[in-house]
Design a protein that fits this description.
Blueprint (H helix, E strand, L loop, with lengths): L13 E9 L6 E5 L4 E13 L2 E12 L6 E4 L5 E4 L7 H5 L7 E3 L8 E3 L2 H11 L6 E14 L4 E15 L2 E6 L2 E6 L3 E10 L4 E2 L3 H4 L1 E12 L4 E12 L8 H12 L9 E17 L7 H8 L5 H7 L3 E15 L8 E2 L19 H5 L27
Parallel strand pairs: 7-10
Antiparallel strand pairs: 1-3, 1-9, 1-13, 2-3, 3-4, 5-6, 7-8, 9-10, 11-12, 13-17, 14-15, 15-16, 17-18, 17-19
Length: about 400
Amino acid sequence: MSKNENVIAPLYSTFQFVGYPIIPKDKFFISGNNGEGFISNSIRFGLKIDDSNTCWVEISGGYNEKNNYPIKTISTSNEKLEVLWKDRFDPVIVSNVADFKKIKIQLKNNDEVQKFLHPYDAIQILKNGLNKDVLYFVSGDVRIERYFNTKLNTYSTIIKYVATQIVVAKEKIEKDGETEIRIPEKPRANATMEFIFNKDSLDESRFKSDKKIDVTAYVTSYDRESKKTIFLPINLIINGEKLDFNNQEHIKKFDFLKKCFTVKGKKYYRTQFKCGTISGREVDEIKIEDLTTFQKEQIALGLKTFEQIKIAMQNKKAGSRITEIRLLQPTEKYPDGNEETEYIEEDFIVPEPAPKTEKFEDIEKKTLFDDPTFDTKEIKKDDDYGDLFGW
């Protein structure tokens, strides 16, 4: 037990994605009824960041037709507030709810941003209105949950990106004489992650082969069975693939990231990092051995050059599937880079309940709005900082 009797304070992580929506043919919009009056809705779609990175976001919520429980929220004076279900559109009541507790939706560039107190109502707008040709800024909360994997007969961890804001990405307007030049926001997939680590978190075992260092960190999750906040392990990456290790500036930055996790003793430390999220396929530069026999023959006959073939193939080939959260740089939250905690080893033991038949699809239906410890923070956009250590 820790000195605070195993009372684990929740850690909050947020994401900020900019991309074009990819709407799946199946399971984009799911509606359900449990037969006892509870109506649930959910939406899940991808955001194309680039040709090799598509991040998936979701939003879900429901209500009980027979017993309309009030919406629990926060007032503009930062006090707890309950809003009756029938009053959730009342402009006077809505104006008394803190802005960061509202779900914001804007589907077209000239549309007014609509604000909702409950995700169920936001979904009704989203399900028919997302435009695949519009660049959206989507932000919300990173949620890590566990579910029972029936194939592996054990518990597995899933990372979910739950949206609280879906709006048209802003354009930057610059003037060239009398002409206005509109520069769209750059597609990106960033997250601000808060987590716990210790002296054993840093693992350099695959640096020589992959130019990557693994960091085993701990985030918090609300466990519905024990009805308390628990720690779950998560793998983070220091990515050195793009670095030139003959460049002293690159080496200094890489060593700085490693130093952030170089600690001694038995203590556990809290820190917060800006991260880049990757979900897709690795992209490798094409080499001569990657060409087909036909392509090699064209080069041998002088019909095509290697450069021409690479350009035709966009100089890229799809590699293996990859899902990573890459560490970019610490935020300004902790002046010394981290903060010592009172947690001890026993606090990080994940309780193992009896095996269940809960499937991946079941865990998808549960959202952070079911978590009584959840308290959404105001979402702010971060600058693009992924050039070296991101994708």
